Amino acid sequence: MSYDPEPPKRPLKPSTCRSQLSDRDASLPDLKSSSSSDIAAFVAKARSMSPYAAAGGHGRLMFALDATMSRQPTWDMACALQADMFREAVGIGSLDIRLVYYRGLNECRSSGWISDSAKLARLMSTIDCRGGNTQIGKVLSHARSEAVASGIKAVVFVGDAMEESIDNLCAKAGELGLLKVPMFMFQEGHDAVAEQAFREIARLTGGAWCRFDPGAATQLRELLRAAAAYAAGGREALQRLSTTVTSATRLLGQMKLAP
User: Fold this and answer.
1) 154 three-state secondary structure
2) CA distance from start to end of the chain
3) Whole-prediction pTM value?
4) Taking 50 as the threshold, does the pLDDT of residue 57 lie above it?
5) Mean pLDDT within 9-25
6) Coil vs helix vs strand at 17
7) Closest residue by Cα to residue 183 from 136, 236, 149
8) Which of these, 227, 229, 220, 233, lies nearest to 205 by C-alpha position?
9) Domain 45-253 maps to which CATH number in 3.40.30.10, 3.40.50.410, 3.10.450.50, 2.40.128.50?
10) Which of 60, 143, 145, 211 has the most CB atoms lying inside 10 A of its own CB?
11) pLDDT at residue 121 greater than cutoff 80
């Protein structure tokens, strides 16, 4: 189905992140308060239902980006670098990527699974950045849903700001962490509020936080390569990459994953 970069005529609900490639307006469920037994039961069910766990399918990576107005230069840079993620995965296994982005007034969208770098590049080239507040909570909710439905191996998030309740984000990150889906939080710039939130989300999910300088293509390239290596081949692949790529060493040093 063709990709339509224009927002839907009907306003998006605040708690949804909609598929850009689907005719269905499928809303993602909001996280609700859960008891310890509820969470344990959810995790057990999620692991048993995961197609990835059952069939050992492709490595799956959610690639989430802040597409608000301040992000245009980095969005363009990410468009140019995203093929490196696929190239890194080639020697390890296969990799499917789902693009998620937010922008404007409560607009959060998700693509289908993409296994071709040229297709992802074409899709990203149709999207322009628009002013709006951050919607990281929707990204976390969507990642939690995909952990059950698709068995994603990791989430990459690239952003420079955080304008939401850090406690709410941490609650969602904690549940994602129970599903063993690490988040690689890549921060552009030096915003202290964003750094505090991104570091905590990374910690709660067993992932890693790294900063890259504005416009630093080489830094972002290495970070994306490292995340792709993990998604395609797990911690062992990240360890191999760390012998030649400094960013992989930094990510590996922060990750607190069970053996």
Assistant:
1) strand
2) 41
3) 0.78
4) no
5) 45
6) coil
7) 136
8) 227
9) 3.40.50.410
10) 143
11) yes
